[in-house]
Amino acid sequence: MAVKLRLKRIGRRNRPFFRICVFDSRTRRDGAPIEELGAYDPYAETLEDKVTLNGERVLYWLGVGAQPSETVGSFLRRLGVRKGQPLPEGFMAKAAEAAATELAADADAGADAGAEATADAPADAVPAAGDGSETGSAT
Question: Hey, what long-range contacts does 16-21 have (CB within 8 A, 24 or more apart)?
Answer without folding.
Answer: 16/42, 17/41, 17/42, 18/42, 20/51, 20/53, 20/72, 20/75
